[in-house]
Automatic annotation (TrEMBL):
Recorded superkingdom: Bacteria
Pfam families, A to Z: PapD_C (PF02753)
Gene3D superfamilies, per the entry: Immunoglobulins (2.60.40.10)
UniProt name for this protein: Gram-negative pili assembly chaperone, C-terminal domain protein
Taxonomy of the source species: Bacteria, Pseudomonadati, Pseudomonadota, Betaproteobacteria, Burkholderiales
Ranges for domain Pili assembly chaperone C-terminal: 3-61
Amino acid sequence: MFDNPTPYHVTVVALAAGANRAAQPLDPVMVNPKSTASVPFSASAAGGLFVTHVDDYGGQVTVEYACDGNACRSVKR
């Protein structure tokens, strides 16, 4: 489940999991402002979760998340 607490649309285009960043099948999904979107995937995120989204300029940005149980939080850099 992706939670978008921002006032902006977020388009998620790729998902990878684990220390080796194994790509996960994903149909791109747009998460509306201040809403959630369910995106199931089967891989373990024990080594981290890497979510790629489209930025305001059309570029792709990958953000690392640390997961604990069913919740993942972005890793600040």
